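Running this now, will post back.
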Amino acid sequence: MNENKHSNWQPYKFIKILKYLSYGIVYYASRSSININYKLRKDFKLEHVNTLSLPISAVRKFDKINEEEILQKQFGPLIMEFVNVIIDNIPNTYLTLFFNNLNTLNSLTKDFDLDNLLLNQHVQGEYLANDNTIVLSKDNCCLTIDHELLHASTTIIDKSNSIILCGFQQINKGRQIGEGLNEGYTQYLAEKYFGDKHKLLHAYLYEKRVAEILEIIVGEDLMKALYFNANLMGLIEYLKQYNQEEEIYKFIRTLDFLNKHLEDKHLTESSFKIIFESLQYINIFLIKTSLRKKIVNNSLNEQMDVFDLIYSLIPILNLLPANITSGNYKYEIVDNKLLNENILAVMSEYTNEKQKKSLIKEI
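Update: finished.
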């Protein structure tokens, strides 16, 4: 890009940016003790990531949902409510996996109380991809049915390579990538489309917030298209316009890490630091990616200045949690210094040395 495209940027005082930040996220329960030996890779490299697969071509086997057959199944009326909402809100061209899986879906009930007690977890439902089966709590099926049906609607299995592709997650022989983002976006859509219909289990609070911010960056329509076609690789390719491939993979894996460990308790000082740094990394990635998109997409707009750039961040900052409380731990993850440094870093990528020195001096 021409380094003089934004030569009219004016220095901007960032002191008021924090007023746009979202309130913090609070977790009221913590999981089991953290494994003392765990650590997040600080020497992150692409070779540490399991090889991802493109979604395999899916042939639509059904043109419509067999309502009569579904209504005869357990949870039939709730499944049909889900079907009608999805058809009304998601373009038909995105729904091949939805039609294929919902027409052949199985459903079971399970008492999760014993498992939750033994494993110190709060599971109320699950989707078994290999059997195309949703398993729900017999007493609280409404809490999770829409979340699990979204998983069912976005899954395809690559049997030749033993890979399950589910929304933004890929699973290969016990190894996975994308769970945090997938669970977050699934919960976000469940609450968006079904939160006013019946009580839902409030889960994946942080992951949901991150996924919602990412949807703002990517665009709602494209985000849905990629999700309903189980196309994690497509999401990565899109983001490569605005960030390095290694950083994108690190973002996805860091969110996976936080999905697993954010609620851990009895943290050592080093463990707390790793979680804190992971939370900050997610924020930095989202801020930088959003700013770069604004700059790249406005590369011909000679009038764009710092105020325009900051203003474009407001939808992101409105959702970005300034702090997160989990158990006995509170993570203060956004402050003026962090925002200033990363806004300046992105701006400096598109300015020449003289302009860069001016920005540093004024900020």
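Strands lie at 25-27, 106-110, 125-128, 133-137, 155-158, 163-166, 169-172, 175-177, 323-326, 329-332. More later if anyone needs it.
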